[in-house]
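Help needed: design a sequence for this.
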């Protein structure tokens, strides 16, 4: 678990995070959503130590017990980063390395494994994300965008992390491949009991795998809940954000058509009016 307590962050006098609090739970897909410029990326970067917060606490339940990020020594931060996996927006694979070498990279940097153990671990992770063995020796430029994201996930879990941070994991992918990547992240989160945090504005992903969702608006957390609750929110700012998505409109229409009694108890209007 990661606990964010009353976090404040500003740049040049402009408050970007205004007393934000949230709990990110083990074994769940935790999502941070919001419009561009809302502060969600700053929150994620603050959680992994790329930004130093101005106030509040970010507490990790590490293997050594609860630790406040702000109070950690440089050595403790390095140890924490060994337990963190990162999935970057564009996969960020090394062009000069093969698929297998990309997955081995964090093992080369942070583990004490033998060369044989590194190879075995890399191949295990690639197999876990359903990469065909014939692709292990290929260069990133020789595989599809969806396969590149699979390799990036394999690299992110190579060190068996407790925490997995994903920045717009479906960026640039077609809808079908996006669903595959979403479900793969969800499976890995549950299988290894990882604390997964996804920064996204993709409502398709939110509705598909969002176990716990925090909505950030102008630096403040205005709403928290699950993908089963998000369509029932009375938060105007959240509704304006959510119902800009065709996927959300589709879900509401299905609810209206197939569960009219439930709809009448929760909404006063026809879905076409609810969305306007």
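Sure. Designed sequence:
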């Amino acid at each position: 678990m990661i606990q964010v307590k009353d976090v404040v962050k500003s740049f040049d006098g402009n408050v970007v995070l205004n007393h934000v609090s949230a709990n990110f739970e083990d074994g769940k897909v935790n999502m941070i959503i919001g419009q561009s410029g809302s502060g969600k990326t700053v929150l994620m970067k603050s959680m992994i130590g790329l930004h130093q917060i101005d106030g509040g606490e970010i507490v990790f339940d590490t293997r050594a017990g609860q630790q406040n990020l702000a109070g950690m020594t440089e050595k403790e931060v390095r140890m924490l980063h060994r337990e963190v996996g990162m999935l970057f927006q564009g996969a960020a694979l090394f062009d000069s390395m093969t698929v297998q070498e990309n997955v081995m990279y964090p093992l080369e940097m942070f583990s004490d494994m033998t060369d044989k153990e590194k190879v075995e671990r890399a191949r295990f992770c690639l197999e876990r994300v359903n990469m065909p063995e014939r692709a292990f020796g290929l260069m990133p430029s020789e595989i599809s965008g969806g396969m590149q994201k699979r390799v990036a996930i394999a690299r992110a879990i190579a060190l068996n992390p407790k925490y997995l941070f994903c920045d717009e994991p479906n960026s640039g992918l077609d809808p079908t491949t996006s669903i595959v990547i979403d479900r793969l992240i969800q499976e890995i989160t549950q299988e290894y009991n990882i604390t997964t945090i996804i920064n996204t504005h993709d409502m398709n992903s939110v509705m598909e795998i969002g176990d716990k969702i925090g909505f950030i608006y102008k630096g403040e957390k205005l709403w928290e809940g699950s993908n089963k609750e998000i369509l029932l929110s009375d938060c105007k700012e959240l509704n304006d954000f959510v119902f800009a998505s065709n996927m959300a409109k589709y879900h509401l229409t299905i609810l209206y058509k197939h569960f009219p009694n439930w709809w009448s108890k929760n909404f006063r209007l026809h879905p076409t009016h609810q969305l306007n």
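The first strand starts at residue 2 and ends at 11.
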